[in-house]
Amino acid sequence: ILSSYIGSTKSFYGPARRLRGSIVHYCELNPKLCVHSSYGLNGTRHSFKVEGHRPLQLSQQSIFCFQPIGDLMTRKGLFDSILQGCIPVTFDVLTASVMYTWHWEEAFWKDVIIEYNF
Question: Model pTM?
Answer without folding.
Answer: 0.77
